[in-house]
Each structure stands twice: as structure tokens, then as C-alpha cells.
Amino acid sequence: MTVDPVGIWRVSGEQPVVDDGGRAAANVPIFAFDGATVALRLRTVHQWQPRPPNDVFRLPARFADGELTYQAPNGAWVDLARFEDGRFVDVGSGRKRIYEPIAADDLDPPDRPLVLPQGPG
User: Fold this and answer.
1) Confidence band, pLDDT 50/70/90 cuts, at residue 2
2) Taking burial as the number of CB atoms within 10 A of a residue's CB, which of 39, 61, 69, 110 is the most buried?
3) Does residue 14 lie within any of the structural domains?
4) 13 forms bridges with which residues in the sheet?
5) Alpha-carbon distance 84 to 104, whole Å?
6) What is the pLDDT of residues 17-45, one digit of tens each?
7) Looking at residue 22, which CATH number applies to its domain?
8) Is 53 helix (H, G, I), strand (E, B) or coil?
9) Does residue 13 form part of some domain?
10) CA dihedral defined by 24, 8, 117, 114, rounded to 10 degrees?
11) How many independent structural domains does the chain possess?
12) Residue 119: is its pLDDT beyond 50?
């Protein structure tokens, strides 16, 4: 069975890792990837920073060689997760976070804005 990386992904568990390559974890508990953008919740540090409703940003994404990255509002490209064995994983900060696909109907109410159509963050 082939699993498509497009969809809604939520952390289902994590495991400690000895070697995380010195990488910091993305610390994104849930995201939606539509093939061209990711929708995820980001915190804004300053009140004056532009932000969308519910702090859910829809940002340009790249998916190449199993790596999913997104372009943050500051323009930097950020590693989000790696697609392996039919699911996304994020290794960093001494742990491996494992994402599993979730149906839109199964989203908790605070996460429903991840799938609402909206303009760029």
C-alpha cells in the first residue's frame, strides 16, 4: 500500500533517539500538506507582527527526496519532517516524533482551521 504525503498529519507518538544529528525538533504537533503548501500553527513573538486568524499559517512548501520544508514568514526555508515508511517523522532535540495521517472529520475543533481555505500567511 502506498501512502500519499498529501493530507493532515498529527503526532501520534515519540521515541528517544541517541543521535539526532544535532538538529532541533520542528515542534509542530499537527500540519496539513496539500502538495504545494503547508498549514500549521506558528506563534508570533510580537503583537505588531502580521498574523492570520487562529495563528494558522498557510505557507509555501517543498517536498523533495522525502524531505518536507516550508517557507516561514521571514523567508527562511525550515525543515518540517521526513517522509519514510508511509509516514512523516521529525528527528531532533533527542527524540523522533512520528506523524500519522488523520481525516479532516477527526480533527479537534481548535485544529479545524488547518483545512479551511485561506490566503497565504
Assistant:
1) low
2) 39
3) yes
4) 98
5) 22
6) 887 787 888 889 999 999 999 999 987 76
7) 2.40.128
8) helix
9) yes
10) -50
11) 1
12) no
- Residue 90 near residue 83 (C-beta atoms within 8 A): no
Cell triple for residue 46?
510580537
Query: Which CA distances in Å does 33 have to 8, 20, 68, 78?
Result: 6, 24, 9, 14
Rounded to an integer, what distance in angstroms lies between the CA atom of residue 33 and that of residue 36? 7
SS (H, E, C) 33-46: ECCCEEEEECCCCC
At 119, list the grid cell: 490566503
User: By the 8 A CB rule, do 56 and 114 touch?
Assistant: yes
- Tell me the whole-structure pTM to 2 decimals: 0.87
Q: Angle CA(30)–CA(35)–CA(38) in degrees, nearest 5?
A: 35
Pairing verdict, β 56-64 and 37-41: antiparallel
